[in-house]
Specification:
The protein is an alpha+beta fold. It has 4 domains: 259 residues, no CATH class; 184 residues, Hepatocyte Growth Factor; 87 residues, Phosphorylase Kinase, domain 1 (2-Layer Sandwich), CATH 3.30.200.20; 219 residues, Transferase(Phosphotransferase) domain 1 (Transferase(Phosphotransferase), domain 1). It has 15 helices and 40 strands. It has a 6-stranded mixed beta sheet, sandwiched between helices. The chain has a 5-stranded antiparallel beta sheet with strand order 24-30-27-28-26, covered by helices on one side. Strands 1-6-7-8 form a 4-stranded antiparallel beta sheet, with no helix packed on it. Strand 2 and strand 3 form a beta hairpin. The N terminus and C terminus are likely disordered.
Amino acid sequence: MAFEQQYFICFLLVLLQLPFFTIAQSYKNISFSSSLTAQEDSDPHWASPSGEFAFGFRKIGNAGFLLAIWFENIQEKTIVWSANRNNPVQEGSSVEFSAEGKLTLTDIGTGKPTNIADGQSTYTGVAYAAMLDKGIFVLATRNSTYLWQSFDHPTDTILPTQTLNLNSSLFAQLTATNYSEGIFKFVLDSDGNLMLYTVNYPLKSNNFIYWPIQTGGGFQVSVEKVQTQDNYQRATLDYDGVLRHYIHQKSTDSWSTFTFTPPNICTAIVEYTGGGACGFNSLCIHDEDAAHTKCLCPLSYIPVDRDDERKGCKQNFVPQSCDKASSETDLFEFQELPFTDWPGGDYEHFQPVNKEQCKQSCLADCFCAIAIFNEGSGDCWKKRIPLSNGKINDDVKGLALIEGAGAGVDAANWRYGMLGSGGGVLQWAAGLCAARRCRVSGRRRWLELQGGLEGGEAECARAGAVNPLNPVVQGMNLKCFTFMELKEATNGFEEELGRGAFATVFKGVLASDNGKFIAVKRLNTVVKENDLEFKAEVSAIGGTNHRNLVQLLGFCNEGQHQLLVYEYMSNGSLASFLFGESRPNWNTRKKIALGTAGGLLYLHEECSSQIIHCDIKPQNILLDYSFTARIADFGVAKLLKSDQTRTTTRIRGTKGYVAPEWFKSLPVTVKVDVYSYGMVLLEIVCCRKNYEPEAPAEDQMILADWAYDCYKKKKVHLLWQNVGDDQEMDGIEKLEKYLMIAFWCIQEDPSARPTIKKVTRMLEGTVEVSVPPNLSSLYVQYFNISDHIDPLISG
């Protein structure tokens, strides 16, 4: 047995056998009739004495709120237990420790109260409730006997000193963003054996044991517990079915995987009923370096549910009909996937045959969806839908021949799954070009291998020959351009539209697309940081779809050339629109303000992965032909899991729009975008830059300070001087409303700023705008703090 597995078993056994000491555990009494209410902009909680753990409400994306326990002193606020994982509650719901000693959760949506400690026979003698420093919430007597404790009702995580009782279970969460009970289960059975199961979802019954850790109940170990004073630890059954031991050094920003089991979930699960690790018709890839797995769909298959990759894939074409199989063979063709297999489920086997015979046998059979061919032995296995236990792995000897729509089917019908690099099988850059709309025919693959293609065309053909899967984002339809295509489209990168710290944007025309105008963003040099920027931008923008975001059309990743292709915005940037010679009218500016807020709302709350833009400014807000605002430049975006609402990174953004928390080493949340939006909103209202260092000394000022001073002194009309559209004003009250919204957005304290959803409602007039708190002077930020970090901030 490998050392890592031995250690993992020892770690679990020590974790489960350590006694739980209650006498030495300090606590803070939660008095009777105390309560917490779920709130949109905060995490109301009761903290443990050290502040390391918290019990309270955590918002989970758009699903609602969990009543949970989490690590409070780390940036990820990792949840280790929840009372209502299958039924999140709405904002305004509450939990109360009642005078009778009950812990009651009330969902405001249904009005239904739920007793959290439902298994307790009596509440007589409950003297207090407490959140303890070992991550446990208790209802206890005066002598600290626990009548109820959260450790007795684990969810997906166990902590040091936690006791897992016989016949207790951990259930993995369903997806990365859905905390409800999923399809994997960890059990300590009645014999003391540790078992990992797949379950008959949505039931909780066991289906298949994929990793037994047999201890016989009497297996004893003598292992020193890893010291915990400098780190946090947990063992979690993750949503991909892997049980991981995590360690978080208190001096670092993130969890690291110390060890895990099974070593490769993709090969560990080969079940007779069920879809395997990734669901029916899908493929599982294991990343040995990150110890993570990815589920993907083969070419011509699409996800059943884009929000849950483990629900499998379905055909995105009309399959062969049995009564016309012989006449329809020209409508179908095969894609070859090396290192790929769907073990089990064979219904016919031939041997010995060659690859072409294997293909033809499958093609003539209307039941055949794929054939697995082993060139060494000449074996051919035919399989029908649904396919189960799919995997891509280096040790797979066979070649998967996947039947899909052929040359007679329109390319628009071809859809692609998601693919990440895994186990040395596939490379990110090569895989990108496999997303190209043109399918790579066998002839093009043969020409490329014979040297008949060159440059970017060869790279795309090579990628298609090795990997006909899309490595970017599910549902994306991006074109992989060659460098020469984009050089010709931009006439040798002749007309420059804009320039930044890492890239230059050029205007182009696609002759192949009826003369469609495009904007081509060319990274200046290919360095490590730019490679991260490039991947971040493709991942962030490629997976979005909103009328207030600039659309990514394609990309080029060819040697030293990295370029991104966007739709062209005919009215340029908001900066040139606001600060040019001709002043825009008030109605158009209001439309732009609302559209920008709408784009941010989508990024923060409505797309599948929460995105913090990190660099909202007029230069990054583009205007289309109808002056609709489109947010651009996602190169500095941070993608977050829906339960990871905070992040830290080096200072990003532009001087004058950067939120104060960047300078204070505080957690960065979506509120940094709200702050930047507030600055932009002031500029939209006043048609002036927030700071103009190039202006004469007598005209220099901080727009926010000046605007707030005018607001406080009832001289708002001064802000409209030289704007030239007084006749179009909605009245001074409407102007004041927009100023008040902006002042709320640029509050120094992030928690005082509204969410972008609330900002949008205030702009629309559906939520009343209250009087904002006083503003701290921004002079310090601009002149005393930001001067020494200018090299870190993009201009």
